[in-house]
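Try it yourself: sequence plus flavin-adenine dinucleotide, in.
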Amino acid sequence: MIAAAILDRLRAIVGAGGWSTDAAELAPYLVEGRGLYQGRTPLLLKPATTAEVAALVAICAETGTPIVPQGGNTGLVGGGVPFESGNEVLLSLSRMNKVRGVDPLNNAITVEAGCTLAAVQGAAGQADRLFPLRIASEGSCQIGGNLSTNAGGNAVLRYGMMRELVLGLEVVLPDGRVIDGLRALRKDNTGYDLKQWFIGAEGTLGIITAATLKLFSRPRDRQTAFVAVPDVAAAVSLLGVAQAVSGGQVEAFELVARTGLEFVLRYTPGASDPLAVKHDWYALIEIAGGDAPDALRPVMERLVEAALVDGLALDGVIAGSAAQAQALWRLRESMSDAQKPEGGSIKHDISVPRSSMATFITRATAEVLARMPDARPVVFGHIGDGNVHFNISQPLGGDKAVFLGRWHEISELVHGVAHELHGSISAEHGIGRLKRDELPLYKSAVELDLMRGLKQMLDPGNIMNPGKLL
Ligand SMILES: Cc1cc2nc3c(=O)[nH]c(=O)nc-3n(C[C@H](O)[C@H](O)[C@H](O)COP(=O)(O)OP(=O)(O)OC[C@H]3O[C@@H](n4cnc5c(N)ncnc54)[C@H](O)[C@@H]3O)c2cc1C
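Structure, out:
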């Protein structure tokens, strides 16, 4: 229970329009996207400036009031939603959505944390530049959320995760002080790289209010192909061929299994099977670059031909237009939604070294099916980054609640295989609330000790998104 006097002080900082207690307005902020968590809060704060955020946090620090920062609320581990107790204030960055500046000569853009990813991509495009982070939630997720989760997505293979796309950060610390680190420098060897502490910290070490991000030349051409492959090992080998033939211009390399494609074809209006014959596994390949539209078409043709000759591909189609490319991407991006009508789904966001990907999928599938023979693995993901969404759909006709009740048991199997192969239980979605209690099983005692030490140093009162991640 937060005292009314504290809530009054917080409201006074942001003024009218900067807060809400209206149940209808609060509702979407309080529910996690998959419906796993339903939180409560006595006050939604919507600051408009960094100074306001700093003043709010200073009051929270003084009074020991817990704060949950929230961006677009598209995170998939419950990190941005308050607990059910109702004794945390929720701080949305949505009103801090200005592009502070674009510097095409320096290939840099400075934006506030509440800018959506799509808005940043758009601002970069207007300056004839590329901001390369691409995820299916880009219309809603915000840069502050992308930074706090170290988001990945479809172009990591070429440009890296969010961590690698940052030049500088502005952060409000848990005591209300502000780090003004918006330096647009590629080289700055002046000691510890403090900005990295806050990237992937899931709002537990401070509130990111703005960022200076890297921009890149805008590729003039993109070519997309959908290729049937004999198995996962072939898909991994095919990536090597694709990189060699394209001179390193592969931007995305996604794995799609037939089961997931069947779901997409069943439930996504307008979706159609790109190839005449059914296959168990597919790769969606995108190359980008060149100085003119269609400049890379011959490269993609050579790539697919080489794959067919080497036996790494069984069939394939190259998109003939932007609309066809979009249709192929839609098959991949509808994969998450298409699992919903099939009932419960136990989800995993695994990474392993690419060289272990085929072993991981074979072993994890065998272990899950040995325990639950009618379960239906739906395997897809950013295989080019060694990242696979290893989801398990419930048996046909089974009881959803009973199936989901076995989440922990099944995850233990899957995460166990990933761990043995020196992989991670969270490639890109983070830990949040969903995987918090599992983290100690897979992270070394030394690493956990350092993480807790950092948290204690920056946030001794434990007011910044408490109970998430650690
Ligand atoms: C359809 C769909 C597809 C997705 N695909 C991908 C994908 O390919 N790759 C991927 O990485 N993710 C993916 N995601 C997950 C999600 O979109 C990302 O994790 C995204 O980065 C979250 O951003 P957000 O603004 O929605 O953050 P939120 O969900 O609001 O918050 C996420 C975490 O960050 C913290 N936080 C938010 N803003 C701040 C801030 N300014 N300062 C400090 N802490 C903050 C929150 O407290 C929370 O812990 C997908 C989600 C959906 C729904």
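One thing you can check immediately is this: The radius of gyration is 23 Å.
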